[in-house]
């Protein structure tokens, strides 16, 4: 994909991997929709891009802890940008497994809400804009840290279940990608998922007190590889720069159908 004149939305782009990806997209000539909760940091990214003299950017704030906020954010993007060439669902949280279970404004387990349900809402509500710009792409930034969903305890209310929170939300992203990619591809939208790099030196990893194993630059390169590749395998899970094999649950037709039904019920979309 040539990025000059393209419009890209990068969620969670005020810090870490998202910020570096946003700057790289702008440097290649794209207009970047910067997203985050913190307006000060978001405007800093926009100013940095403006000062670089390449590309352009606009900040739109939203807190994905609330589905109402996600819906409003998607509506704003769709209104302002009837054509969207690239959606990178990067926003996410990763809390320590030692912390108590936390919930979103809507009462859903927090990782599942922020890391997964927000992306489900965005791909559906922005589908029209993506189709209008076809050929376009959706990149769901996931992880190899997979924890299969226990359908009897999706919201992790049982003792000790919260340890699966991050991995479950990330596998849900991968599963969603496998499920939705074929129908999106029929309209010219290529959807893939990606594990960019393991334990990058981001603020999230630092906060967890876990030693970093890779750099944000490595993760950025993996994302940009998918952005600019001449072709992508719709529905594929990429591990870094290579096609990987997703967890078995993502390849299970029944599991995908269950996740789709649950996601529709929780978000009222589609």
Describe this structure in words.
This protein has helices at residues 16-27, 39-52, 67-80, 110-125, 127-132, 165-185, 203-208, 216-228, 253-267, and strands at residues 7-10, 31-36, 56-61, 86-89, 136-141, 189-195, 237-239, 242-243. The protein has 270 residues and is of the alpha/beta class. The chain has a single domain, classed as NAD(P)-binding Rossmann-like Domain (Rossmann fold, 3-Layer(aba) Sandwich). α6 links the parallel β5 and β6 (189-195).
The spatial strand order of the largest sheet comes to: 3-2-1-4-5-6-7-8
- Gyration radius (Cα, Å) is 17 Å
- The outline comes out as globular
Q: How large is the count of helical segments?
A: 9
Average of per-residue pLDDT values: 95
List the helices and strands and how they pair.
Layout: E1 7-10, H1 16-27, E2 31-36, H2 39-52, E3 56-61, H3 67-80, E4 86-89, H4 110-125, H5 127-132, E5 136-141, H6 165-185, E6 189-195, H7 203-208, H8 216-228, E7 237-239, E8 242-243, H9 253-267
Parallel strand pairs: 1-2, 1-4, 2-3, 4-5, 5-6, 6-7
Antiparallel strand pairs: 7-8
Relevant terms:
single chain, 270 residues, alpha/beta, Rossmann fold, eight-stranded mixed sheet, 43% helix, globular
């Amino acid at each position: 994909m040539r990025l000059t004149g393209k419009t890209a939305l990068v969620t969670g782009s005020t810090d870490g991997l998202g910020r570096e990806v946003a700057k790289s997209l702008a440097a290649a000539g794209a207009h970047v929709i910067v997203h985050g909760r913190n307006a000060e940091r978001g405007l800093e990214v926009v100013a940095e891009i403006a000062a670089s003299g390449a590309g352009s950017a606009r900040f739109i704030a939203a807190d994905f802890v609330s589905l109402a906020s996600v819906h409003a954010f998607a509506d704003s993007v769709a209104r302002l940008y009837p054509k969207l060439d690239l959606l990178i669902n990067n926003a996410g949280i990763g809390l320590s497994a030692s912390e108590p279970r936390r919930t979103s404004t809507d009462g859903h387990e927090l990782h599942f809400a922020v890391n997964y349900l927000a992306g489900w809402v965005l791909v559906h509500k922005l589908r029209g804009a993506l189709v209008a710009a076809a050929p376009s792409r959706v990149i769901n930034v996931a992880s190899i840290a997979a924890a299969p969903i226990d359908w009897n305890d999706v919201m992790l209310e049982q003792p000790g279940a919260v340890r699966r929170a991050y991995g479950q939300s990330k596998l849900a992203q991968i599963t969603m990608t496998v499920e939705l990619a074929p129908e999106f591809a029929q309209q010219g939208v290529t959807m893939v998922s990606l594990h960019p790099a393991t334990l990058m030196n981001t603020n999230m990893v630092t906060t967890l007190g876990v030693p970093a194993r890779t750099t944000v630059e490595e993760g950025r390169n993996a994302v940009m590889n998918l952005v600019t590749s001449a072709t992508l395998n719709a529905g594929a899970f990429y591990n870094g720069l290579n096609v990987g094999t997703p967890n078995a649950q993502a390849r299970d037709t029944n599991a995908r159908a269950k996740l789709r039904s649950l996601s529709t019920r929780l978000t009222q979309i589609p």
